[in-house]
Amino acid sequence: MSTPSPATTAAAGTTDSASASATASATAGADAAPEPSQRRNLHLLVAAQSLGGASAPIIISLGGLVGQMLSTNPALSTLPVSLYNLGVALSTIPAALIMRRMGRRMAYLLGAMLGLVSGLIAAWGIARSDFMMFCVGTTMAGFYGACVQSYRFAAADMAAPAWRPQAISRVMVGGLIAAVIGPQVVIWTRDALPAAPFAGSFFGQAALALLAVPLIAMLRIPPPAAVTTSGSGRPLSEIAMTPKFMVAVTAGVVTFGLMSFVMTAAPIAMVGCGHTVGEAALGIQWHVLAMFAPSLFTGRLIAAIGKYAMTALGLVLIAAAALMSLGGLDLFNFWGGLVLLGVGWNFGFIGATSVVTDCYRPEERAKVQALNDFLVFGTVALSSFSSGRMLGAAGWDAINLMMFPLVAVVLVMLGGLRWHEMRVAGRAA
C-alpha cells in the first residue's frame, strides 16, 4: 500500500544515468521508448518493489491485531499501522536529502537495511509482549516504505513525458507480486513461533528486505554528479499554489487517505464480525492484488482517456467500494469492497501522480515530489490512526459513509480544473 517519492534533482547536483537518459529521450521525442539501460533499471525497480512492497501488507494486516493483543487501550490498536504511515511521511524529506547528496541507490540500500532491522525489532517486541517496541519497529519500517514509494518517481524521471504514466504503472506492477507475497507470509508464518503469535511474520518481513538488497545494489544510479543546471527553479510555495498542483495533491491525498482509512480498520472489523484472521489476511491480499493488478494496463488507459478522467474514475470506484461495504457484513461484502477500493486506489493514485509530474521542471522535481509525498503520507498516517478510534466509537458503517462527501469534493475540483484548462486552450487556439 503502498501508493504513491522524492526524486533526484539535477539542479541540486543529483543527476544519475537514468535522469541523463531521460533528458536524451525527451530530446529525441515525446514518444521515445526507454533505452536498454533504462529498461534494466525499470526491471530492477519492479523486482525491488515486489519485495519492499510486501512489507506494507504484513504491517497493515497484522498491525491492528497485534495492537489489540499487546495494548491495554483498544483505542490504540491501530497505532502501529498509524506509526508506520507516519514514518513514511516523516521520511520523505530526509530520504530526498539523502538522494540529493548520495544518490538514489544509496538511499534505497539504506531503506532496505532499515526494513530488515525494523522487522527484527517488531518481532522482538511481540516476543517480549512490548507494545512500544513493536511500535518502534513499525515506525522504522516507514523509511523503507518512503523509499519504496519513490520507486515510481525514479521510473518517471527516466522516461520521456508521454511515456511517464506507463513507466509509473510498470513499476507499480511489482506491487502485484507484493500483494501475493505479503499476505502469504502472514498466512504461513503467523503461527511459526507458538509462544509469540505473529512474530514469525515480522521475521519474514525482515527476510524480504534482506532479499531486496542485492537487487538495489545492481541499480546503475551512481552518486550525484556535478551541478549541470543553474538555479533551483521556482520557489516551492509558488509551485504549491498552482491550481494543477493543488488539485493533483488533493486527489492523491483523498485517494490514498480513504484507502488507508478503510484498509486499516477492515481486518479488525472482519475479525470483530466473526471472520477468522486468515480470512482477514486473504481480504487484504485480494485488496492489495486489486491495488496493483490494474497497473498492467493503467498506463494505456491514461493514454486513452486522459489523466483527469482516470483519476475521477478511481474516485468513483472508491465510492462504489463504500456502497459494497455498506451492503452487509458477509465475506462477500468485505472482500468485494476491498477489491473495489484497491482498483479505485490504483486508478486514482496513478492518475494523480501522473498529473503531479506535469507540475514541475527538471530542476524542481526533488522538492515537489518530496512535498507531494509528505502531504499524502502525512494524511495517510492521520487517517489510519483515526480509523481505529472511529471504528470503536461509531462502527464500520460510519467509516464507509464518510467517504462520499470527500469523493464528491475532489470530483468537483477535477472537473473545474479540466474546464479551466479547456477554456485556456480554446483561447490560445
* Whole-number tally of structural domains: 1
First-to-last CA distance: 42 Å
Within CATH, the superfamily carries the name: MFS general substrate transporter like domains
Alpha-beta content class: mainly alpha
Oligomer: single chain
> Tell me, what is the CATH class?
Mainly Alpha
Characterise this structure.
- By secondary structure, this protein is mainly α.
- The chain has a single domain (17-225, 233-428), classed as Growth Hormone, Chain: A (Up-down Bundle), CATH 1.20.1250.20.
- It has 18 helices and no strands.
- The chain has helices at 17-28, 36-52, 55-70, 79-102, 104-127, 131-157, 164-172, 174-189, 199-217, 236-240, 243-272, 277-292, 295-305, 307-326, 331-356, 365-394, 396-401, 403-428.
- Helix 13 (295-305) crosses helix 15.
- The chain is globular, with a radius of gyration of 20 Å.
- The termini are far apart.
- 61% of the residues are buried.
- Residues 1-31 and 222-230 have low confidence and may be disordered.
- GO terms for molecular function: transmembrane transporter activity.
- Residues 1-33 have a biased composition (Low complexity).
Task: Provide key terms for this protein.
429 residues; globular; 18 helices; disordered N terminus; mainly alpha; Growth Hormone, Chain: A
